[in-house]
């Protein structure tokens, strides 16, 4: 949408009518119809530029937020991912208790592997085992997630 320029066109050029909303207004629509669209930039004809100059991108695909696409938030890094990019169906998303992205999963795996290799952690597990709690009972998950 242009802030400083308007074009006139013949009515014979119009093939269909659509409603174009700001992104904020689009997200507030009670029901999105097939002829509802959103825009996030203003075009300045005088300078030939757009406002804003950039928008935040999300996901491994590095795309801007699109309210028409389902997204899920990683419980650790708080980044957002399109469900299709992380191979989750809508049903899977609805039943999720938590979500950890691949990057954070790999980092947690590295931390766990490092702890397993650490002599101090081995001695600690051995001493816990001697006390009869098996090294994990009562200790639970070493990487608790806050919900």
Please tag this protein with its features.
single chain, 147 residues, alpha+beta, Herpes Virus-1, two-stranded parallel ribbon, 4 helices
Question: Overview of this structure, please?
Answer:
Helix content is 27%, strand content 16%. With 147 residues, it is an alpha+beta fold. The chain has two domains: 11-51, no CATH class; 56-131, 2-Layer Sandwich (Herpes Virus-1), CATH 3.30.40. Strand 1, helix 1 (23-28) and strand 2 (36-39) form a beta-alpha-beta unit. The model is unreliable at 121-147 (pLDDT under 50).
Number of helices: 4
Count of discrete structural domains: 2
CATH class membership of the largest domain: Alpha Beta
Tell how many strands the DSSP assignment holds. Answer: 8
Enumerate the strands of the largest sheet in spatial order, edge to edge or round the barrel: 1-2
CATH superfamily of the largest domain: Zinc/RING finger domain, C3HC4 (zinc finger)
Please state the structural category: alpha+beta
Note the run of SSEs as H and E: EHEEEEEEEHHH
Radius of gyration from CA coordinates: 25 Å
Q: Could you estimate the helical fraction of the residues in percent?
A: 25-40%
Fold-level CATH name of the largest domain: Herpes Virus-1
Overall shape: it is elongated
- The low-pLDDT segments are 121-147
User: From the coordinates shown, what is the CATH architecture of the largest domain?
Assistant: 2-Layer Sandwich
| Strand coverage percent | 15-25%
